Amino acid sequence: MHGQLAREFAEMALRLHDSVDPEQAAAQVLRLALCGTKCGHVGVMLCPGGARLEAAVATDYLAEIADKLQVELSEGPCVATSPASCRIDDTATDRRWTHWNASLAEMGLRSVLSIPLSTESSTVGRLNLYDEVPYRFSHQDMAIAGVVALHAVGALTRSAGRPDRSALVHQPTAGCESPVRRLSRHARRASTAR
Asked: What gap in Å lies between CA 173 and CA 177, rounded to an integer?
């Protein structure tokens, strides 16, 4: 990072550490990841109270669907047992999670970078970066995302420790169809129409 970008990144990191509520902290994490890597989409998945991994926040609909599909399909870097960072250069050719990668490629998301949000004793979630361009993420992007994850884990666990932890994990609005179910329904319709 150079000059102005480094200054903006440092200012965002300071705002992140000053965040007092979970939603504000999560929004700052998303901005920090977008600014640092210039990727197209960012999502955060968390394990509230050590429970099942859930999509918490996302910059947009595509990142939200990509994160939720990992849970629904039980595939992807967030549901893998390894706590290591993961880079997918091209979802159209990667063979590790065939259904999840195929779904992302169909949505136009071709590159993925997933970084663990870890404390010294546990992993509390993942920071997921997505982009439409294959081979989008460099080693420098991995390093920047790692720094974002370090800032994020402190701010998110600190703010999530406040009384209303549920504010950080989005739940579908009552009466609304989840985006994952909507995507699955459209995929089923398309396959039966063929």
From this structure: 8
Which tokens hold the place of 77?
């870097």
Q: By the 8 A CB rule, do 26 and 44 touch?
A: yes
**Domain spanning 3-193, CATH architecture:** 2-Layer Sandwich (3.30)
Q: What is the CA radius of gyration of the chain?
A: 16
Q: For residue 86, what are the β-bridge partners?
A: 114
User: What tokens were used for 91?
Assistant: 């979802």
Whole-model pTM: value is 0.77
User: 131-151 pLDDT, tens per residue?
Assistant: 999 999 999 999 999 988 988
Q: Kindly state the tokens that stand for 175.
A: 């009466």
Angle between helix axes 139-160 and 22-37 (nearest 10 degrees) is 170
Q: Do residues 71 and 158 touch, judged by C-beta distance below 8 A?
A: no
